[in-house]
Amino acid sequence: MMQSSAVGLAALVLASCLLLSGKAATTTAANSRTLTQSLTSSINLNTSDTPVTINATTAGKFVRFLVVGDWGRTADTASLNQPQCSLTDFGGDNGLLGGIQQAETALEMDRVCQYVGGCQFVVGTGDNFYECGVYPGDTTGRLYSDWIDIYKNPVKTPTIANLTWYNVFGNHDMAINGSVEQEIAFTNSTPGWQIPSNYFLKDFDINGVTMRGIFVDSNPFIIKYNGSAKYYRQYFIDHSNPSYINQQQQFINQAMKSSTAMWTFVVSHYPLFGTATNYGNDAGAFPGQFNGWSMLLDSINQYKPVAYLNGHDHSLSLGVPPANKTNGYTQYYTSGAGSIGSQTDSCAERANYAYSNGGNGGFVLVTVNATVWQADYYTLGSNFPQCTVKSSVNTATPATYSPGCALGLSNTCCNGTNAKACTT
Ligand SMILES: *[C@@H]1O[C@H](CO)[C@@H](O)[C@H](O)[C@H]1NC(C)=O
Ligand SMILES: *[C@@H]1O[C@H](CO)[C@@H](O)[C@H](O)[C@H]1NC(C)=O
Ligand SMILES: *[C@@H]1O[C@H](CO)[C@@H](O)[C@H](O)[C@H]1NC(C)=O
Ligand SMILES: *[C@@H]1O[C@H](CO)[C@@H](O)[C@H](O)[C@H]1NC(C)=O
Ligand SMILES: *[C@@H]1O[C@H](CO)[C@@H](O)[C@H](O)[C@H]1NC(C)=O
Ligand SMILES: *[C@@H]1O[C@H](CO)[C@@H](O)[C@H](O)[C@H]1NC(C)=O
Ligand SMILES: *[C@@H]1O[C@H](CO)[C@@H](O)[C@H](O)[C@H]1NC(C)=O
Ligand SMILES: *[C@@H]1O[C@H](CO)[C@@H](O)[C@H](O)[C@H]1NC(C)=O
Q1: Which label site among 25, 71, 147, 178 has the fewest CB atoms less than 10 Å from its CB?
Q2: Considering only the top CATH level, what class is 7-406?
Q3: Which segment of the chain is annotated as a signal peptide (predicted)?
Q4: Which atom belonging to ligand 7 lies closest to the Cα atom of 54?
């Protein structure tokens, strides 16, 4: 989300909201940090806190993976106003602050994985390289500056440095001609980077736990991007058509239907039920929208994957579909706060979520064994999760939410009574 072009003002307002939310947090939570502390890059996790998460003693019996989205902002200011990445179209976000929060979030991912006894892989929910993706040949070195040096660094992030990432594409990967192809090419050239094709599946068998991840290219579902000067037009012309969308849907249905894994999950960049973007509900709100979303939702409701994981909204949230769009089992996690967090994104669609972290940086940690699938939401600055969702392997049993999932909206910019206070 956050595609506003009101450059300076939006950045200023956002920065001041982040400062405000940081200050407010210190008065309410024992181990919160102010943004000032966050800028020093010193994360001191308070090990006196009892984590809700399954701990190191039981490591090995579980599989743990991180879910993080909307992350690559470390060198994005340098790429702005380069060919195919115009300041006019992409000037709305704050690259400097985003880069700092990206580094902070990476450190916290590392600390949390260390604390729980190790993680096994990472799911990236898209918007991998802001603002516009990477140039063919990655001539500006974004893979190193925004990924290798941040997450694969054996000194800064030793616990997660060797993990493989399974990614999807987001809209910000789609502006530069050749970016999609280059990100796919990284799969063969770079250990730990996986996007073998626009959409794909991955079967995991780790510690006796089997999982099938289905990684979806939902970009062409959004017809307003087809013909938008912002994005690389040829990609949408080639893919925003019934042939591609039906072909992918057949792949998704077959992948769900044939899955013999204990757990099947779906990854896509955009929320079906998010706090700002809401493609599962808003068919009429996006004129010309393709039927890709309703086909995907029908498939989810038929085959009951344990979770749909997405980014795009720059916050962490737990979506709640309306009664006539839920199968009573599948959970909708938004994890799109890998660099900048946005109060605006975290508040707009208040009816559709059980939890929102109020638009701060963070990620989700999923812990899995043969019978329990648990998602923990970690907001920057805390070593305990704010919201924990547990799903059973029995698809007739609904997930349970921890008390923290009902809290959300703890900052003064977006407190539930005046959701858009930050932008007006
Ligand atoms: C760590 O957490 C404990 C328990 O929540 C609290 O009593 C203590 O003050 C915290 N220490 C720091 C340095 O924040
Ligand atoms: C970790 O889990 C074990 C087994 O449940 C328990 O005995 C131990 O106290 C836990 N450790 C921490 C730090 O919570
Ligand atoms: C996009 O890139 C391809 C391959 O490099 C090139 O053939 C094509 O002309 C480019 N299209 C535009 C519109 O720049
Ligand atoms: C993990 O480390 C080993 C040994 O250094 C290396 O061969 C392998 O490519 C690394 N894997 C990833 C995913 O980075
Ligand atoms: C996408 O744009 C192309 C070129 O303008 C057009 O031919 C095509 O019909 C569009 N696709 C959809 C689904 O509207
Ligand atoms: C689902 O319920 C909403 C009201 O909550 C209603 O507007 C909509 O038409 C219903 N959709 C279907 C397919 O029944
Ligand atoms: C999975 O973990 C839960 C919670 O720790 C535990 O109750 C359950 O027995 C475990 N299941 C298996 C198959 O180990
Ligand atoms: C929420 O925001 C509104 C408008 O800024 C303010 O009037 C109200 O006092 C705030 N409520 C809380 C609980 O902070």
Answers
A1: 178
A2: alpha beta
A3: 1-24
A4: 5
